[in-house]
Design goal:
Length: 342
Amino acid sequence: MQSTTSRPLSLLVLGGTRFVGRTLVEAALAEGHRVTLFNRGLTAPGLFPANGTANGSTGAGGVETVTGDRTADLSALDGRSWDAVVDVAGYDPAVVRRSVAALGGRVGRYVFVSSLSVLADQATVQDEDGELLDLDGELAPHQLYGARKAACERVVLDAYGERASIVRPGLIVGPYDTTDRFPYWPRRFQRGGRVLLPGAPEDAAQFIDVRDLAAWILGCVTARRGGVHHVTGRTVPFGEFFATCRAVVNPAAEPVWVSSERLLGAGLDPWMGVPMWIAAPGCEAVNRVDVSRALAAGLTHRPLAETIVDTLAWDNARGGPAPGEEGLDAAAEQRLLDELAR
């Protein structure tokens, strides 16, 4: 989505040098906006030189980096104002509350990047009005992240009202994704041979390219889009995802499906024990999230093949994940194939 404003915007990004933040800054610069980064300077310091982008090209906008720790002191931002702040790194409601208090009325809009993990019910399809996890409620350990994000949402909404934009992505994929959930698959098909595919072809997958997410976030500012939106991709059958990987990466690779029952029987973690495979009880709707509100407001998705090809190019350029950080190492996959494939 392109900018709908005729003037460059001034954006404050809390964070901005990792996956989502980095892509957002690159997109903002490409549209000629001015960006201020506020972070501790620990991740990729110097990534964005003044008036430049991460790859060294120069856009009409510019980047200023202000070093500071939002958990303790935001005074380095005193006396300044921005059209919007984009909070890509808010996980603790107390920290977000401190940011909200420090910025006050000096930002026109507060865009908070939340998560679909805030939803209390992951077993049935929910829209944006679904019940949220509550930090004061009875929570399982894996629900704490979502509950904290939900509490952060409430802080921003209470403070900014209609000038709050809550963006709830699900699985975010594309270049700079170091989790090795999505990157594992293009790399695995590239290696070829027998490729273990988890579950069944009709199982659901759902994700969003980080560049499409960044465009949506910028649109929240340029189009003055407030409220809460689920911002992820359309549901795609696993079979379609893997078939596209094979077609654009290595048609000679041999797909071998192994059912969820067999994988669970072998003791695999039902939450991405094989990358992107989810067979945990109570998570039946995780990859079937309703995104109709965001689509009606202009959310667009690039072709799946483009995301696969671009992610593989980035993954190859970085040399793949560090040892021990692979989504599923080759030896473990081979053992599963030997034991479970029929």
